[in-house]
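Re: folding output
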Amino acid sequence: MGPTQFIPSTWVQYKDRIASASGQNPPNPWDARTAVFATGLLMMDNGADDQTRASERRAALRYFAGGNWSKPAYAFYGDGVMSLADKFQKEIDVLEGR
């Protein structure tokens, strides 16, 4: 559902935390601001808050494939996410004069 493609059952599991984090109650999966808060919480729970390249890639794979995240067939997704992250970081570095 919505711009970050939440499965309805996952949204229900997160709705109270989303409401608390976003200040929108009830939270709406079709609202981009709320959806981004929800994705942040999910990625954090998937391990991205460990702030390592491996944990962020794994979190992206879990977002995409759930319990099947470690299957080699899904590596393209994690690799693609990390490639985009690298691109964004390079652009941020330019903007910050690094």
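--- second protein (sequence, then structure) ---
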Amino acid sequence: MGSTEAVWQEFSDGLRTFIARRVRDTQDVDDLLQDVFVKIHTRIDSLVDEERLAPWVYQIARNTIIDYYRRQKPHIDLPEDLAVELEHSEPDPAEQIANGLHGMLKSLPAKYRQAIELVELDGAKQAELAETLGITLSGAKSRVQRGRVLLRSALLECCHFEFDRRGHLIDYTSRPDCCEHCQAT
């Protein structure tokens, strides 16, 4: 096969039908078909297995259609005063949780609380923590790690978290039986 002309001969009618089933405007169908063949022409050398030509061609068509619809998404201009409205909105859940961490931190055993405060809140290096406390670097790392685990456990016992598909916190709810000093404010 190899040449774009031969690919056109074999696939143009089938691709036009394939695209037309997914795109309503006939002018857009022709434009997309042309885009597909431009992509085929520029990338034909990247085809490793000629027996996989049909799936390769149709994958290019699918991706072209997806790109077409992405470009079609309407863009809405937001009002200029929207930023002012957002300033008065509900606080960010991550900020609320961060405020509640201070209460949870107080509930940790003193050696873990001190390690977390020095490293996570004050920004000290773990080597500085080891020197300050007169312990080994390995011991300092262990305390920080154990403190993080205890703090995480306290958070998970106290709250139910909701995350978006990227893992960002979008909401949380405090459990009713959570102790008062652990509740995020």
